[in-house]
Amino acid sequence: MWLEIINLIIENFTTIYLIIVGFTGALLIWISRRKILQFQSKKSARIEKIEDFESIQTSSPVDDSKQETKDAAVESIEQRFTIIRKISFYSIVFVWFSALSFPFLGQIPATLVSLLVAASGVIVGVAARPLIENLISGVVISFSKLIRIGDTVLIDGKYGTIEDISITHTIIKIWDWQRYIIPNSLMLEKDFFNQTVNDQYLWAHVKFNVAYDNDLELVRKLAIASAAKSKYFSNNETPSFWVMEMNEKAYQCWVAAWADSPMDAWELKHEIRTELIIQFKAHGIKTHSFEINSSSFVENITASA
Q1: What letter would DSSP give residue 200?
Q2: Residue 61: enclosing H or E segment and its boundaries?
Q3: What is the tens place of the pLDDT at every residue in 263-295?
Q4: Residue range 222-256, pLDDT digits in tens
Q5: How far apart are CA 140 and CA 133, in angstroms?
Q6: Which domains does the chain have, with CATH numbers?
Q7: DSSP state of 115
Q8: How far does the chain reach from its first CA to its final CA, in angstroms?
């Protein structure tokens, strides 16, 4: 009995193979479409939860409401995932038909197959390589959490917000409203800070130097008070103060405090620096341990001449 079944399978191998491959291909198309729509829905829902798309607080001269910005971001996501659905569909169909034609490859001349493979390799390798690299990178970025529209990032020394991720490039809206455009293939190779990948909170810190002949305890109190005084300080933990380095002319200090978002952290650091300058001047605190006496400097120059 088993022998008869095996012989029947062998005799009808091509038909059984085509049925299995055909069913598998159709199933893959349905699953990929469903998964892509789920990713698109999640990313669109996340956009609606974002409160602000700016990296600093500013009153824009452009009449661009929050909802309009969100609508543009959702539209960008829909366009990107529409292209991804088409790419995935045609890729699966190509592999599907290649698998379906496998039993019939022996009937195709080897010379013709070699010619088609060589021509396809030249076209893909030379003419379409940059486009294909960016397309693949765009798909990888779309399905990862490396960067998302609305994320605040620091990349190549530039601080801003991800404004758009197309299938071929990423647009970053820098804090001064310039647009920094990076091809997706390069985006995957770059090291960058994503300040909102998991949450909005930031431990904002300010560095400054103080001369050795100052009262360190007074410096500490002024630094902590400067951070706590700011309206952008998230009052869930007392600001911290550290002496980080001891140099020849001064020692370096850090003061750090929590902010609720990258936008607030930007303003918090500004207000800490401003208040430190005011308080240091009021209390006679020097940031280095040497002074230039203008009269003595002129006398020395005259004597040397």
Answers
A1: S
A2: none
A3: 999 999 999 999 999 999 999 999 876 554 444
A4: 999 999 999 999 988 899 999 999 988 899 999 99
A5: 11
A6: 2-142 (1.10.287), 202-283 (3.30.70.100)
A7: H
A8: 117
